[in-house]
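Posting this for the archive.
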Amino acid sequence: MSRPTFRRRIGGAITALVTPFRDGVFDSVDMMAHIEWQLLSGIDGLLVCSLTGEGPTLTEAERIRAIEICIELSEDKVPVIVATGTNDTKTTLEETIQAQRLGADAAFVTVPYYSKPTQKGIIHHFEQLAAQAELPIIVHNQPSHTAIDLAPATVARLSEIRGIIGIADSGCDISRVDLWRPFLPERFSLFTSNDASALGFTAAGGHGCFSNAANIVPRLFQSMQHSAAGGNVGAARSIDERLQPLFGALARENEPATVKHALSLARDIEAEVRLPLVGVGTETAAAIQAAITPFQLDGSGRFASRNTYRLGL
């Protein structure tokens, strides 16, 4: 399957999609409804099979079907990015080539975790991927999960590798935009995967956010990102202030569980997660309920029905 390349269009508000389960089984119906709502809400891109989507727990068949659904429903309207990173270069390459064959627009590849490679090992890992896969690669730098942070010299080297088009940083250090930008080529994009710092990152010159919260408030998150990118910082800040309590509530525990809990209150998506993840605790559940209450649209205490797609969010 061949699709247009979206290299210059990956940016703005990109939803790191959850993967719905029901009674232990991948729920393709809920996933289709969720993606359709995201697209109707104006989201700029879709990331599938990431940690938020519980990618490591998906079977091969579930993973393929999740990617296929994303690609089929996007209909080339927005880029579909597939998380393919593992702690093994061979497996990561296989997953990346599979995503390429299915028609993805880019691969979202974490710095290898658990084995803690050196900076040299990280560079060789991504060199191998870029040399053997044709899919554009976005490097995900997530030290809280990998126990490794990219050194500036490593960032500079990665930016020189043909096929690597950007880095998504998970931290709150907005100064990295200014630190990294001087030695990066113009074609190279910088993203964040941290909702709480998304506004500051974009205002500092970043290109967008891979967002967990956009699962719940896609239109508001997209409006914040577009306002910030367009220089309307006042409007963006106003939205960000409204969203910060939600960002904080989602970050209280692991975000697949917190995001799904919010969606179970708002969009009829099951809160079910797969072990070793478990559902949220009582205090976190109360914090999430309080955080989403200002965004509820009807008297039932829920967002608009997934079947009506009222887009106040």
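Confidence is low (pLDDT under 50) at residues 1-8, 298-302, 304-313. The domain at 12-232 is CATH 3.20.20.70 (TIM Barrel).
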